[in-house]
Amino acid sequence: MHNERLDERLSDEELELFVQYLHRFANHDVDISVRMEAGYPEHPVYVLFGRDYPPVGDVADYRRPFADRRQVTSKSDINDGG
Fold first, then answer.
1. Is 16 exposed, middle or buried (0-12, 13-18, 19+ CB in 10 A)?
2. Where residue 82 falls among pLDDT bands split at 50, 70, 90?
3. DSSP for residue 56
């Protein structure tokens, strides 16, 4: 896979899409673990996705991206007739 925009940061929209894809990948493609190398070969980033490993460090150190953006399904209130 080659990306002409490798030197650019992700836009907010691209980051949100990446996180959506990451959730799908984790739910459907990670049985026990997947190890990957990404980024420039001179400065690689090593990534481990795993289900059978305890988290490194404190669980509270991990955050779920965009978890504060809950979708509102209805703004009506039962008391306002809506």
1. middle
2. very low
3. S
Q: Which helix (H) or strand (E) holds 15?
A: helix 12-29
> How many beta carbons lie within 10 A of that of residue 45, not counting itself?
9
Tokens 């509102």 — which residue?
72
| Whether the predicted pLDDT of 65 surpasses 50 | yes
Q: Which residue has the tokens 């949100």?
A: 16
The DSSP output letter for 66 is: T
Letter for the amino acid at 27? N
- Distance, in Å, from the CA atom of 32 to the CA atom of 24, rounded to the nearest integer, reads 15
Three-state DSSP class for residue 9: coil
Angstrom CA distances, 4 to 7, 11, 20, stand at 8, 15, 22
Q: Is 0.70 topped by the overall pTM? A: no
